Amino acid sequence: DADVTQTPRNRITKTGKRIMLECSQTKGHDRMYWYRQDPGLGLRLIYYSFDVKDINKGEISDGYSVSRQAQAKFSLSLESAIPNQTALYFCATGGTGTYNEQFFGPGTRLTVL
Amino acid sequence: QKEVEQNSGPLSVPEGAIASLNCTYSDRGSQSFFWYRQYSGKSPELIMFIYSNGDKEDGRFTAQLNKASQYVSLLIRDSQPSDSATYLCAARTGGGNKLTFGTGTQLKVEL
């Protein structure tokens, strides 16, 4: 089984709808991250969490919220989706070791019409 | 100026050649650096990281770090068509809490 899973893998929705993307991991990592990827813009950090009680905004948090339900689960919500939130979304996990390497889930392709 | 910069490419090399991918960074406080490979439509996959000046080799891959010049490079020896992908460079920044990614270099290995 994959160490980092994301659901759903693909989603098409309409403007104004609420959407939740879910991430689960079995790597035992404390740190979890949400990124979006757009052509030409690379990976941009939305939110990150270092434990269940710690949530931090990334560089593009407007229009998004997150919930860390457990060490292994980190959800991203779009309260009212808009077309420019159409992107590929990745969850990542990282340990607390010296190098802070991150490991990515398979991604969710979200289309907002 | 972006914190981590890469040439978007595409970089085309013939099969069997050495591919050289470069990355520069602006935060002198960055301490470790990562190379990820991403196939089209797939997630980034960590292939190497480096934190000391000099070279680090792993199979056909060599990462090079020059902190004085603020650049990182990835060499791929004996390039194969399966190496065709986008390579993302990342730097550990923000006091070590985050990775900042470049926009990636597309590599094409031609038969």
In a nutshell, what does this entry contain?
The complex is a heterodimer of chains A (113) and B (111). With 113 residues, chain A is mainly β.
Polypeptide structure, described:
- The complex is a heterodimer of chains A (113) and B (111).
- Chain A has no helices and eleven strands.
- Chain A is an all-beta fold and 113 residues long.
- Chain B is mainly beta and 111 residues long.
- Chain B is built from no helices and eleven strands.
- In chain B, the strands form two sheets. In chain B, strands 2, 4, 5, 9, 10 and 11 form a six-stranded mixed beta sheet that branches. A five-stranded antiparallel beta sheet of chain B has the order 1-3-8-7-6, with no helix packed on it.
- Chains A and B meet through β5 and β10 of A and β5 and β10 of B.
Comma- or semicolon-separated keywords:
heterodimer, A: 113 residues, mainly beta, seven-stranded mixed sheet, four-stranded antiparallel sheet, B: 111 residues, six-stranded mixed sheet, five-stranded antiparallel sheet, 11 strands, 0% helix, 56% strand, globular
Q: Biggest interface in this structure?
A: A-B, 21 and 21 residues
Total helical segments of chain A? 0
Major sheet characteristics of chain A? 7 strands, mixed
Specify the structural class of chain B: mainly beta
Strand percentage of chain B: over 45%
Order of helices and strands of chain A: EEEEEEEEEEE
Number of helices of chain B: 0
Show the helix and strand layout:
The complex is a heterodimer of chains A (113) and B (111).
Chain A: E1 4-7, E2 10-13, E3 19-25, E4 31-38, E5 42-51, E6 54-57, E7 64-70, E8 73-78, E9 87-94, E10 102-104, E11 108-112
Parallel strand pairs in A: 2-11
Antiparallel strand pairs in A: 1-3, 3-8, 4-5, 4-9, 5-6, 7-8, 9-10, 9-11
Chain B: E1 4-6, E2 11-14, E3 19-25, E4 33-38, E5 45-50, E6 54-58, E7 61-66, E8 71-76, E9 85-93, E10 98-101, E11 105-110
